[in-house]
Amino acid sequence: MRITVLTLFPEYFDSFKLSPVVRRAVEKGICELDIVDIRTFAPGSFRHLDDSPFGGGPGMVMRCQPVLDALASLKSENTHTVLLSPKGGVFSQKKAHELANRQDILLICGHYEGVDARVENHVDEQLSIGDYVLTGGEVAATVVIDSVVRLLRGALRDTATTEESHENGLLEYPQYTQPADFRGEKVPPVLLSGNDKAIRDWRLTQSLLLTRQNRPDLFEKYPLSEYEKQLLKKADAEKVED
Asked: What's the predicted TM-score (pTM) here?
């Protein structure tokens, strides 16, 4: 897979490219990550990148010419172009899987008060990572790249991404490691039992309980099976008894 990022601040990605998963994927040839400075596509010695918005208003807007010229120079027939923008649909694990199945992705990082709206006519989609304000799209780009790259075959162990939060619509169950007793805080006995079925049931029950408590919006959309309903009923009954 090739991922290209258009940004005004390429240095922002210097340390990100050294993060373990991204670096491993690049070194193994699983992913090619190109960070492109939009300034190289701005004309003149001053590299004019932004201007005041027509109609007035605070802040500056990124001009369309450098961005669109960069797009024309870098994209191919197979390139899927994404503008990182608060106007876009909210990024999700489902979208991460969708992007991971593509071979060529180009991410555009907005800045200042955003980009000239004409850029929107030349991208395949817009994505947001949440309902809050960021200084620029660089933060959002690292979120998208990290979540996509770790899904690529060979970037992690094959089973490393199958039981994580949001993969199946639920939050992940609690995890523990050594020591089994740390200053009186003990690992749940079932995890030390060696009973595979009991452990699977406990983990599923905990995922259901955590999702219901912490993310009722996800739980409401999750299609509970009859078996899962029984597990929840049992857990709720045990809680009442305690």
From this structure: 0.82
By residue count, the chain amounts to 242
202-237: pLDDT as tens digits: 999 999 999 999 999 999 999 999 999 999 999 999
Per-residue pLDDT tens over the stretch 43-56: 865 567 888 888 88
Q: Tell me how many helices (H) and strands (E) the chain has.
A: 7, 9
Nearest alpha-carbon partner for 99 in 31, 42, 164 = 31
For 105-144, give the secondary structure using H, E and C.
EEEEECCCCCECHHHHHHCCEEEECCCCCCCCCHHHHHHH
d(CA 225, CA 231): 10
| Lookup result for tokens 């090619």 | 32
Within the chain, strands assigned E span: 2-7, 32-37, 50-51, 61-62, 80-90, 104-109, 125-128, 181-182, 185-186
